[in-house]
Write a structure and sequence with these properties.
The protein is mainly alpha-helical. The chain has three domains: 106 residues, Winged helix-like DNA-binding domain superfamily/Winged helix DNA-binding domain (Arc Repressor Mutant, subunit A, Orthogonal Bundle), CATH 1.10.10; 80 residues, Orthogonal Bundle (Arc Repressor Mutant, subunit A); 45 residues, no CATH class. The protein is 54% helix and 9% strand.
Length: 272
């Protein structure tokens, strides 16, 4: 993939306007290799200087060279962005690249907004799954077809409520009954599951080890967000709660009554 193609992909994938420095930070090695292949070797005249002066001069030259190298990288990125902008300005393209808020953003052209808006109305909203739902869905994806008791045994908790939510979202469906005592219902993933997660088929599922890493990261982020939340004042709820508890324990000077403590209940945000 060429540098131009990579820059195009970065601009397309960025949710916010991407700056030249952000692109340079990602493509520094590719740009350096490109410049090296196009550069012409030349030698500088050798000057006789003392060792201390030589070291100082060498450091200064290195800094100057790094600065020039970075500036060449910026110019190259700006050149590519100008080329892409000109190409997308063609009537044959429905997208355009524009400079927005100091960066570059790819978006649909204004003349196509009506048709894009009509199409977007029919799109399904993004799936938001809780950690419990994600775990249950993973068990079904890797073990399918699988029964509710088997899922609960693997997870260590009852999963009947989570299964109902996944069925409602059409991410899973029934797959008959298992031929054992009680004939429990079997569950499997659906075509919607593949579409929502961008999978060609179940063979593209990440390994169990990769999924466990993703789940652990999501769980740590969830706990961190639950422990410390900030309001509009910028003061965390945990700090406010400590101060409130201290005030509630302190005796009232005006009434002469002993201080009291009221338990503060913090409602966790509802999760799908």
């Amino acid at each position: 993939m060429t540098v131009k193609a990579k820059i195009e992909a970065i601009v397309y994938a960025a949710e916010e306007p991407v700056t030249i420095d952000q692109i340079l930070a990602v493509l520094a090695d590719e740009l350096s290799a490109e410049q090296s292949s196009q550069s012409v070797e030349f030698s500088l005249p050798v000057e006789t200087v003392e060792s201390g002066q030589a070291a100082e001069q060498s450091l200064s030259d290195a800094k100057q060279e790094a600065k020039q190298h970075r500036e060449r990288g910026r110019r190259r990125i700006r050149e590519v962005l100008d080329q892409l902008t000109a190409e997308y300005n063609s009537p044959a393209h429905g997208m355009e690249i524009r400079q927005v808020a100091g960066g570059y953003r790819m978006s649909t052209k204004p003349e196509h907004h009506d048709v894009v808006r009509s199409f977007a109305r029919g799109l399904k909203p993004p799936v938001r799954l809780s950690l419990q739902a994600l775990e249950t869905l993973a068990v079904i994806a890797y073990k399918q077809p699988v029964t509710a008791p088997e899922i609960s045994e693997i997870r260590g908790v009852d999963s009947s409520g989570v299964l109902a939510g996944l069925l409602a979202r059409k991410l899973i469906t029934t797959a008959g009954r298992k031929q054992v005592i009680g004939r429990p219902i079997l569950y499997k993933t659906t075509k919607d599951f593949l579409m929502r997660f961008g999978l060609k088929d179940l063979n593209e599922l990440p390994s169990i080890e990769e999924f466990e890493k993703l789940t652990a990261a999501a769980q740590s982020d969830l706990f961190a967000a639950s422990e410390i939340r900030a309001d509009a004042t910028g003061i965390s709820d945990a700090q406010t709660e400590d101060e409130n508890n201290h005030d509630q324990h302190a005796p009232s000077e005006e009434s002469g009554e002993e201080g009291h403590y009221e338990e503060k209940i913090v409602e966790s945000p509802q999760r799908d």
